[in-house]
Design a protein that fits this description.
Elements (H helix, E strand, L loop, with lengths): L5 H4 L12 H4 L4 H7 L6 E4 L6 H12 L3 E5 L5 H14 L2 E6 L6 H13 L2 E7 L3 H4 L2 H6 L2 E4 L5 H13 L9 E3 L2 H10 L4 H14 L1 E3 L2 E3 L2 H8 L11 H15 L3 H14 L2 H16 L6 H15 L5 H12 L6 H14 L33 E2 L3 E2 L24 H16 L1
Parallel strand pairs: 1-4, 1-5, 2-3, 3-4, 6-8
Antiparallel strand pairs: 7-8, 9-10
Helix pairs in contact: 5-6, 9-10, 9-11, 10-12, 11-12, 13-14, 13-15, 14-17, 15-16, 15-17, 16-17
Length: about 425
Amino acid sequence: MNNEPLAFRMRPKTIDEIAGQQHIIGKETALYQMIKNGHVPSMLLYGDPGIGKTSLAYAIAGTSRLPFIALNATVSGKKDVEQVVSEARISGKVLLFLDEIHRFNKLQQDTLLPHVESGAIVLIGATTENPFHDVNPAIRSRCGEILQLKRLETEDINALIHRALQDEDRGLGKLTIEMTDEQVERISEGVNGDARKALTLLESLISASDEEDGKIQVEDWLIDNLIGRIGLVGDKKGSHHYNLLSALQKSVRGSDVNAAIYYLANLLETGDLIAVTRRLLVMAYEDIGLAAPEVGPHVLAATDAAIRLGMPEARIPLANAVIEMCLSSKSNSAYKAIDAASRAIHEGNAGDIPLHLRDAHYSGAEQLGHVGYLYPHDTPIGSFGGWVDQQYLPDKIAHIEFYEPVIAGEEKKIASIYKRLKEFRNK
């Protein structure tokens, strides 16, 4: 068997062999037509590991037939970049694939960017991190296309596995392998859209299977065992992690228990318990808020318990918290109120503190006019407690209302009190 990994051998040679990514490189796309007509624009490829960024770059190189150089920004130095520039001068045009492009340093950029701008070097950069956060603007500005690749669908992975099983030159076609369609489907479903993992798992599976009378018989238990060891996508520092946090919060906000529990499970598998508990606590006050004020303390207790317990037991109180938040009444009124007040301050929409609210606990305060404050507790109002009609906001913004109640859950009671006090003030 070839010593090169199966995933490497099965890389597509042209864009017609690409599995999935039809929204980017399908035959009806402008990019496909451009490359077929001999024009390759500089571009950034963004997406999770194993979904085809490197394969797409190699396929574009194979189709365009441009001189092709592949570098990794984590290990390449200025000398490597200068060699690319020299090759471009000799050949007239070079296609450079730069993996981990978000790690490109300024010295490399200064050497390379003028040649990218002139068109002598066509740059295809690949990154697992959000290019708008982690790729230098100088590089982004010279890449006309920023393409976000998607995880491959099960049928795309199926096609890729069948191609590997049948290909006699690059794949496993010279071997007699007995695999059912159901087993291929099981692999495809178990790799979460990662083509590289699928082919790596297939190769491991064949190596671990018994051979009898020249036939390799694949067993179900072996597939299940290997799938359990292939690991998860993402880590606790990458863009995928922050996408999971975002998806968790939006699922809770949308009251979708099943989606929220799914994203919580994903996050806990990455091992960053602190980030998860912090986000859950923020959500309790940002998205549930005054509609169910008891949820905040409940979530605080759950997150404290999770930190004390550690994994795997931490998942239990956190699951309780997530389900309670999903099914609680929701209000973002407090969050919106504080943001509105902050916005007013930053926009210069502020004023002097009224004299009667200023500190008067010293001799001379009366001379400065710090008088006139009315003590609310001296004026009871029904069962509410004390209240007196006096101005608290600065004159300039006394008309502004930052708080807009949401009529939900327990906030209905708060909203009615707020409305009643406004009526008293208006009288």
